[in-house]
Amino acid sequence: MPGLLLQDLWRFSFFAVKRGDKSLLNDLVWALIMFPLLIMMLRRDDPDLFHIILTWGGAATIAGLFGVVQARVLPSLTSPRARLTEHRDLTPSYAGEMVTGSVSGQLVFFGIGAVASLAAVGAHRSAFVIFGPIRVLYQGLSLMGVSEAVRMVGKSTARLRHAAIRTSLVLASLAGAFGLFLGLMPNQWGVALLGTVWAAVDPLILPFTIGAIGLGMTMPVFIGMRAIQAAKRSFRTKLTVSSVEVVAAVVGASIGGAVGAAWAARPMVLLGSGLWWKRFGAELKRLRDSEPGSDGEVWISV
Questions:
Q1: 90: which DSSP letter?
Q2: pLDDT in tens, 86-145
Q3: Residue 252 has pLDDT above 80, yes or no
Q4: Number of neighbours of residue 188 by Cβ within 10 angstroms
Q5: How high is the pLDDT of residue 177?
């Protein structure tokens, strides 16, 4: 785990100083070490989960140490306390936000399993997997997005708002196109991807596409809220939206299994994006009202 965290730290750090090439190289080092070893293990008659996880973390540790060489900087072991103290107004909210996202996702699966069946859980999880490329795109954007958004808001909030609108439209369009592709692709392709589970996943494609569009519209706002340090409002929004999604998924699963859970919960993501945008707009207005610049926009020192 320490090695994984160190490698993740370098990824964010390199993006923050506009050296995405170093971040890419560091990830490539991790992948070039990890995947050959994993393939060797999986070809064994009795692949060992312990050693598979150790390979995953061990390769990340090597990549993390390579990051030290790339940056020519040693991580400080004494500064975290000062850093946490400096940002004590942000840390609890951001920690709560991340815990909320993780716990709510697990509660959805536990809830579906409790009121429906394990087969419904499997179908729901498989639908998440098949939308993996879109989620990877969103996660990649979040890696570089915060540092870029901070640079934008350092000039004006209008630039951040316009970038968020443009990005949300692009991401929503890509998610819709990907969902359309999944919905129209030949049935045998789905069977090749997921085997017999495809029959249960196929009816979930449309509601999950709606959810992916909603998440694409939310992601730029999520990044923007971080850039303007609206930690408390971001946490409250995440808690509200996630709670509604969990309740909707469980109620939907009790009525219609995996299909009911998908149609009840995934559109909530799209509706939740409206709440995210409303609160993002309120934060930008608060900034403009509190520190107006010469052109009516707030200029933030970063």
A1: T
A2: 777 777 888 888 888 889 888 999 999 999 888 899 998 899 889 988 888 887 787 777
A3: yes
A4: 9
A5: 95
Classified as helix, coil or strand, 127 is helix
What is the longest distance spanned by two Cα atoms in the chain?
Answer: 70
% residues pLDDT > 90 (the chain): 34
> Of 53, 203, 51, nearest to 124 (Cα)?
203
Q: For residue 227, which amino acid is it?
A: A
In the chain, where the domains are located: 2-75, 88-290
Rounded to the nearest angstrom, the gap between the alpha carbon of residue 252 and the centroid of all alpha carbons in its chain is: 24
- Would you say the C-alpha torsion 211, 214, 218, 219 has a positive or negative sign? positive
- Are the beta carbons of 270 and 213 closer than 8 angstroms? yes
Residue 230 has pLDDT above 90, yes or no: no
Q: Where are the alpha helices (DSSP H) in 185-230?
A: 187-194, 198-201, 205-227
Q: Check pLDDT > 50 for residue 237.
A: yes
Q: Per this entry, what is the length of the chain? A: 302
- Identity of residue 134: I
The closest of 102, 123, 112, 103 to 199, measured between CA atoms, is 123
Dig out the tokens for 180 from the structure: 């359309």
Q: Is 138 helix (H, G, I), strand (E, B) or coil?
A: helix
